[in-house]
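[Meeting: bench + compute handoff]

Bench side (C.D.) handed over the final construct sequence. Compute side (W.E.) agreed to return the predicted structure before the next meeting so the bench team could plan truncations. Sequence as handed over:
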Amino acid sequence: MPASEELGFLRVAVAAPELRVADVAFNARATAEALHVLATDGVRLAVFPELGLTGYTCADLFYQPSLRLAAAKAARELAVTAHELGMIAFVGLPVEAAGRLYNCAAILAEGRVWGLTPKTYLPNSGEYYEQRWFSPASTLTTDQADVAGHWAWISSRHILGVRGKHPFALGVEICEDLWAVEPPSGKLALAGATVLVNLSASNELLGKADYRRDLVKQQSARCLAAYLYAGAGPGESSTDLVFSGHGVIAENGVVLAETERFSFKTRAGIADIDLERLTIERLKNSSFAAVRPASADKPIGEAWIELPAAPAIGRKSGTKLHRPNPPRPFVPDAPVQRAARCEEIFKIQSTGLATRLRHTGSRKVVIGVSGGLDSTLALLVAVRAFDQLGLDHRGILGVTMPGLGTSNRTRVNAEKLIGQIGATLKVIPIEKAVKQHFADIEHDLTTHDITFENSQARERTQILMDLANKHGGLVVGTGDLSEFALGWCTYNGDQLSMYHVNAGVPKTLVRHLIDWCAESVFKGTTSEVLLDIAATPVSPELLPLGKGGKLSQKTEEVVGPYDLHDFFLFHTVRVPSRPAKVLLLAEQAWGKTYNRATIARWLEVFYRRFFANQFKRSAMPDGPKVGSVALSPRGDWRMPSDARPEVWLAELAAATGVRKKTK
């Protein structure tokens, strides 16, 4: 079994083979050839178009017994082929049952036509005349149909359970069913189907492909399912219509793959759907759990089969996943999308702060500005909030508090930025106060330990809080989501504020927001300062500078790269994934930058720090949720501070082959 399948992934495909109208033998050969090609790519489940064995545009030829018998025989032969290749497949054909003709999807499993699903909604307007030949599923009076001498069940209300390392259930609908007000897939999903397939013959019109794609994407999101849509290709009759072979694979609102349209050659879209993730999404979604399934009133039939073994012979080597796996999951990829997202994030943050200022009646804020990424973003958010409320920027008190490790670069940038935006600058050196504090608690100034660092953070917080009291303002927090996840903040120090505008923004996104502000929001000197801040190494600047005033403390050398930690955070909190799976995904996304051992090392650090620092998150201040991951104890994340990471560390050790001692 492939490693990806062990971890809950299933490779699926939608395909539009080359087709000739009414030439069943040709169509069957093309489908068989497609199955063999897909098998070499490790595909385990394949979906082909509506009435694909005969052609959707056969019209009155559907009445011909010879055509239907040939299609039935072809389906039986293809079932054997699919099973030998370790696959489950779906093909379309016309089937007679109890004196009526049905447009059916044949489920090819266990080497036979395991079952038939008739179409529920038959379009009969415009260019469609399906009711001339076919009857809807609601007219069925039998649950058995003859398929070339073999009896198979026929029903639109069955789901097929598939046993394997990660069991799942299949639900089937056909073309127009998806376009209906109440698609059958909704009830099938509530009854347990996590993989929904649609055999289609939707013709092409200007703009229809976008609409079709959105339908598939939205239905996959609504059903918390994977949705596999296979459309008929251009080999269909062009008497009045043109078909493009549009296939789409979507998972919970995200398009994973699409086929190339308007090709006369066989085209397929392949994707690895995440069965484990779909189950977790349903467990977490209270709306899904609260809906009374239709099966509570009228039973939906269910049967189970085994996922056939995957033969290794002839399969391509390699473990790369066929699915989007962005290395920076919090950062939009496309530049146009990124600009829109950055603007939206900025609006959420600034509106949250503006609302809190209106509620408290405060007209001033106090921000500790270090010249680093986080405090810069908090300062810019405050500017936008003041603009929303029509307040004077001088009410923003930007405080720089140079200490024992402050670099000239960050101090100059902080002071320049505060001046450029028209805020009020206040410089309060803390070195003298901190040294006095060390003397009071009898701490050796040359011992650069956690006491040395945290004393400076708490001194700064005390200054900010006292200034806020003095000026009747609010202390705006600067720390970000990544720092809260890792506990990279001082308890009762920078962990505290009166409103934490960056609490929902991870470090990788903070940098992009600063870049965006430099490129799109601010000009001239302000833009230059912002670009230099974005290029400055991340550091709390709590340890004395090295030779030549160089930083002696860089955060990512201590806790690890934020690129990796944000990736780990997303796949631990947003998509609760097991360590072995997080490791696999991280290798796929970051393998060219970090080797497996390095990724595993920092993943272990992430788990240890994430569990050890929940107590800091349990006391985090108010702040706006920005994306799909948030760690507020009042909102998305509830975790006991006493939880232990041993289960996660043990699985990570097993995945890497390294045995770890636990305390």
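W.E. noted at the follow-up: The mean pLDDT is 92. C.D. will use this when planning the next construct.
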